[in-house]
């Protein structure tokens, strides 16, 4: 973990100090969970941002300085780090963090201090400041992803579904999205079972869920912790369909779940199966370029669904920062932050690895169905399913 932190910090050291006559440098504050229970997401996030830096590390010939901090998967530290980056380090922009509770804490601080931010974990919309929104996000809305699952359930004649997920903001997002989409599809949600990210057993929750005899089970856990219900369902010889989520697209999940993961259907971003996308899909070329940059800086190809969010957050920022600089505002000033915020929320049809982004102040649907595919896990690999 320290290796990736040093990689990013060493990149910052390459940028010359601002001196008389030189233009002010753009400084970005990046928070992620390099330790703690969400590190299985936070470490890939950091690797993805490093790939973004390799792919696009300067604006008009000037490098961008990055200050990276580890929030140890603790929302209170996410808040403290964000405040430090803004008040002490005077960053122009924030990117982060891993985990919904941590990202919400960071986003609330960004709004309070009026610093533009791109969130790389899915969260509910954060209340805007008096001048409008300050926080955009690259992960697909949970409702968009879950709608793909429910569409598949309906096509498969599923009538009842049980939910087993985290007892936190992410679990709430998944469950609420399921209830809304399932209700519209006349599918009954018959159980809502929760567990903590640090729990080591979900046997009781699975027993209660299975006792309702659901046609399908949807899992609202991520990373290695997301494997617990999968293993418990196999132990109980559950024969119904199992649906996962984008947070289970990782080698850590596959390693822990093993053969029990076979057949699970998950919604995810197109980057997961980039080479399986048709040539006509504009996301394909960007996703393949991300993979090349990732392998160059990390020594191996990506094998998760989280690093691409760090990459997309970075390249979306760079695209907006180019337009903000054209306004004439100088970095490290409130005027530049406002110009950068305006540029972000005027982003139109920007192609990333996870989708095509349209950040609009009055539109929470910043991506559409182009940002979602369904995959089936087969023998430790992800297979693209054909459109319904």
From TrEMBL:
The keyword Repeat appears for this protein: no
Name the UniProt key words of this record, in alphabetical order. Answer: Amino-acid transport, Signal, Transport
Q: Name one Pfam family in it.
A: Peripla_BP_6
Describe the location of the Leucine-binding protein domain by residue ranges.
25-347
Could you identify this protein by its name? Branched-chain amino acid transport system substrate-binding protein
Query: Which species does the entry assign this protein to?
Result: Pseudochelatococcus lubricantis
Task: Output the Gene3D superfamilies linked to this UniProt entry.
Answer: 3.40.50.2300
Kindly list the organism's lineage: Bacteria, Pseudomonadati, Pseudomonadota, Alphaproteobacteria, Hyphomicrobiales
Concerning its family, UniProt says: Belongs to the leucine-binding protein family.
Query: Where is the signal peptide, in residue numbers?
Result: 1-24
Q: Would the keyword Signal turn up in this protein's UniProt record? A: yes
Q: Which InterPro entries match?
A: BCAA_transport, Leu-bd, Peripla_BP_I
């Amino acid at each position: 973990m320290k290796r990736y932190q040093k990689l990013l910090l060493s990149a910052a050291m390459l940028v010359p100090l601002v001196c008389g006559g030189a233009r002010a440098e753009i400084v970005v504050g990046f928070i992620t969970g390099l330790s703690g229970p969400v590190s299985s997401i936070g470490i890939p996030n950091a690797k993805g941002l490093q790939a973004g830096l390799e792919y696009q590390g300067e604006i008009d010939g000037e490098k961008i300085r990055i200050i990276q901090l580890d929030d140890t998967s603790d929302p209170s530290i996410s808040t403290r780090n964000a405040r430090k980056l803004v008040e002490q380090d005077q960053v122009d922009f924030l990117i982060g963090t891993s985990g919904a509770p941590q990202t919400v804490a960071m986003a609330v601080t960004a709004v309070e201090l009026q610093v533009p931010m791109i969130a790389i974990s899915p969260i509910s919309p954060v209340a805007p400041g008096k001048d409008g929104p300050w926080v955009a996000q690259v992960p697909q809305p949970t409702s968009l992803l879950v709608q793909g699952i429910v569409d598949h359930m309906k096509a498969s004649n599923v009538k009842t579904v049980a939910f087993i997920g985290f007892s936190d903001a992410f679990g709430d997002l998944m469950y609420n999205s399921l209830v809304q989409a399932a209700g519209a599809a006349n599918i009954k949600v018959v159980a809502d079972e929760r567990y903590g990210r640090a729990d080591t057993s979900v046997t009781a929750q699975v027993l209660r869920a299975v006792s309702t005899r659901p046609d399908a089970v949807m899992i609202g856990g991520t990373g290695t912790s997301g494997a617990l219900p999968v293993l418990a369902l196999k132990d109980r010889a559950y024969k119904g369909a199992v649906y996962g989520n984008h947070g289970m697209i990782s080698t850590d999940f596959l390693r822990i779940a093993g053969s029990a993961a076979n057949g699970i259907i998950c919604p995810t971003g197109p980057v997961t199966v980039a080479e399986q996308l048709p040539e006509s899909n504009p996301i394909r070329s960007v996703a393949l370029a991300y993979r090349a940059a990732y392998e160059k800086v990390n020594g191996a190809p990506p094998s998760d669904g989280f690093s691409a969010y760090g990459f997309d957050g970075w390249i979306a920022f760079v695209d907006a920062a180019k337009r903000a600089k054209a306004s004439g505002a100088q970095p490290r000033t409130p005027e530049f932050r406002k110009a950068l915020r305006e540029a972000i929320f005027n982003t139109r049809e920007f192609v990333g690895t996870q989708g095509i982004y349209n950040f609009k102040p009055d539109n929470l649907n910043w991506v559409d169905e182009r940002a979602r595919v369904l995959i089936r896990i087969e023998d430790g690999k992800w297979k693209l399913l054909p459109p319904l």
